[in-house]
Each structure stands twice: as structure tokens, then as C-alpha cells.
Amino acid sequence: MCGWVYFKSIPLALLQFFLWPHLMCAQLPERLERCLPYPSLAQEISAMSERTDPSQEPSPKTKRTIISVKFGPETQLPQSLRTQIVRSIRHEQFYYDSESDWLEELQEVGIKGLLQDSGYFRPKVNADAHVIGGTHRNKRYALTLHIDEGRQYRLGDISFVSVNDDAALAFPASELQEHIRLTRGELFNASKIRNGVEELTRLYGTKGYIDMVPIPEIQNEEDDGPINLVMRLDQGKPYRVGKVEFLGLNEKMQNELTPKLKPGDVFNKNLVDQIIKRNKPLLPPDASWDDVSVQRNTKDGTVDILFDFRVRFDFRTCSMPEH
């Protein structure tokens, strides 16, 4: 049985006295800190700093539910899109103290976002909200939407350029284009552009460019023409694998892990995901990116990777979990 079992007979205050100096000098990994049978000094300090006078605590936020939606006479949207807007926001619930905050979210995200995914890139939206029932903490609203949708835009050309004139693109433009799920002539869709930005970030991560930042730039010199998209890529530098360390796994288990991260190889961030996903029988049940630390060495262009899979001790049963 693990030596931790003998702590059961030690008074809690005395146990804390012995361990606090260590905790003050080094921060425990999150996996181990969560298993402590008592709060660490850092946790207690944090809790104390968060305590406030009960009389000063904020009251519960008001729940606001949209019951009905209608459109102002100036709105010229097709009926199919009106129906889509109503379905997306009717019975939606918002939790804000401020009346203006939830209406702003509704206008900017719930309505403008949907319009910009349908080609209406520059809409103007104003929502009037009227209370029609409920209680002080659970209000029900009727909305009137005043929408100037503007013109419906289509996509023109897509181009990719490096922000550093001296650095060539790490991937051919044709390959980068495949990750923007829009083609010339399609209705402009803001969500597809955002998804494309995320895909480009993952793609660059496979070749060690973990600091790459894509900056989409919208160009529309003629108001009645299509929208051209220029993707400016701040590629940064490619990183290679430096030191790889595993905690909580014996040598045999480490050798069984697939795929392998070898010092000197180009750092492929996707391989870290694969190590966690493909080796579930060898790892703790809750293994995730929270157990991985990636430390950059910008001078050498390397990253040191620490996998901390040290298993939690179960203080309720005074035993280590089966593995």
C-alpha cells in the first residue's frame, strides 16, 4: 500500500505544516493539486482574496426569454431568412444585469452574425424589446427587429501573402485555398472564413509554425462588386522538438506510446493530440492537453514537451486507482 496511507493518522493541521513549505516553493501540477485532501496555501490565499462582505455580493442575474419576434416595415429580407432568424432567437435565454448588454449580444451575434453568414456583410440592426410578462428575475419579451440588411455580397478572389516580404509561404497557395471552404461567386459567409482561419492555424502547426497568426483583410473597392479576401500570414519561425519528458509512466509504457515525438524532428502539434487520443488504455482516464506543457526556446527554435500523467491518489480509499 502506498506510503500516503500513513497520513491518515496525522492531524490535518500538522500535515499541512509539513507540506506547506514545499507548496510555497513550487506549484503542484494541476492533476496533483486537485487530489489534495485539504486546500494548499496558494488555494487558501486565492479563496481569501475572493471573499467579500455578503451584503456586497451581487444579486442573481435576471433571466430574459424571447417569446415573440416581428420585423419592422423597413426590413426587406426574404421570408426564408426571416424564418431562420426567428427560429434562432425565439425562446433564447439571456442572463445579464444590464438591459443593454443582452440586447447588444442579440444584435451583434444572434442577428448580425446570421446575416453575415448569408452574404449581408454590412447590415444595420436595431432590436426593440418590450416586457410582456414574467417576474423580476424571469422576464419575458416581445421583440421588434428593425433591419437594414444592405446589399448581399459574394466572394471574389482569395489570396495569401506573408507579412514578411523576405519569407516565402510555407505551403503553396493552392493548398492554403483548400482550407477556406468558399469559392469565387459564392455568397460571402463570415463563419466559413473564421473556420478557415482555424484550419490554417492547425495546418501550420503540423510543420512547427506554432506562432503563426492569420490576419484576414477584406477588400471591396467597388461597393457593388464582390468581396476580395486577402489572408496575411504572420508565419513566425518553425520549431523542432527539444526535450520530451513523461511523468507518471514507466519506461515500458512510454515505449508503447504511438506516435513518437523525437528530439530534432519538426514539432507537429497534432502528434500531441494523437498521443492523448490513441493511447487511452495506457493513460489516466482524464488525460488531456491540461497535462501537457510546451516550453518554447525561441533562440534555438525548439520546444521542450512535458507530459505529466502522474495519477491522483484516492484519499477516500487510501489507494492508487487501478491502471
Rounded to the nearest angstrom, the distance between the terminal CA atoms is 15 Å
Shape: flat
Strand order of the largest sheet: 2-1-4-3
CATH superfamily of the largest domain: membrane protein fhac
Q: In CATH terms, what is the fold-level topology of the largest domain?
A: Ubiquitin-like (UB roll)
CATH class of the largest domain: Alpha Beta
| Structural class by helix and strand composition | alpha/beta
Overall average pLDDT = 82
The major sheet is characterized as: 4 strands, mixed
The fraction of residues assigned to DSSP E strands is 15-25%
Helix content: 25-40%
Q: Which blocks of ≥5 consecutive residues have pLDDT under 50?
A: 1-26, 313-323
Query: How many H/I helical runs?
Result: 9
What's the number of structural domains?
3
The CATH architecture name of the largest domain reads: Roll
